[in-house]
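During the second half of the funding period, the structural biology subgroup turned its attention to how the target accommodates small molecules. The most pressing case was hypoxanthine, which had performed well in the primary screen but for which no bound structure existed. We therefore specified the complex as follows and requested a full 3D prediction, including the ligand pose.
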Amino acid sequence: MTTPAADLADPIAASAATLRATGRAPRIAVVLGSGWSGLTGWIEDAVEVPYAELPAFPRPTVGGHAARVVLGRIGPHEVVLLAGRKHAYEGGRADSMNGAIRTLAALGVQILVLTNAAGSLDPAVPPGGLMLITDHLNLPQLSPLWDERDDRRFVDMTDAYDPTLRARALAASARQGVALHEGVYAWVVGPQFETPAEIRMLRTLGARAVGMSTVPETIVARHAGLHVLGLSMVTNMAAGMATQTLSHAQTLRQAQAASERACAALAAIIQALQ
Ligand code: HPA
């Protein structure tokens, strides 16, 4: 397929054209956080495109995050998976995923599933547990929309995590016999982990999980008109709530251990989404 010359000047249009040239027309996209990359194993008829071929996509810098798009099917649905995200702690900006998410919208995606690894603030949700995000706390009060100029930037964040999709996810998990907890995700920039005092603060604010991603992506996705579902995999009890010291290596180890069960649950959820 040839890409129209005008599109080449626009990174989002050019990225969408490259993905469209694979012949796939996904309506569901998934951003794969730490521990969730095993979902690529559930894809049938997979086609891969490296982020390096997509000018609107980021160049992530973190170990454990690949950088490729995988298109294919899970059950009846065409899906597009984003393996690799760029975080606000890589340079201090909340808009690093804007181009990728706007490309998905341009491609015709309607549902965006955001996954992450998180610390738990609730002993009833131990490491290995899964939490459906019901709402979030944007603690840094950063926004991916600061370069927007028109009034559409005043995005309503009520029900940012789509209630209908959440109900379908809960029903699918119940059918699978998988415990899916629900709660508020608190976003911190990182990359340092929180202090025990910060975790006590977050608990009083009503957060059940804490992590360094997802929230900027939810905001730009809502601005782009996508419906969002958010899922956290708990990799550790948050700072001060257990005796272990926190590290990225420990996060990745626990994410790996919980990965197979979590990805099976997510595959079942995706099949139930539309
Ligand atoms: N805090 C912040 N981000 C995280 C954590 C945590 O405890 N675990 C995994 N990602």
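Two results from this model are relevant to the next phase. Residues 117-119, 188, 193-194, 210-212, 235-236, 238, 246, 251 surround hypoxanthine (CB under 6 Å). Residues 174 and 180 are 8 Å apart (CA to CA).
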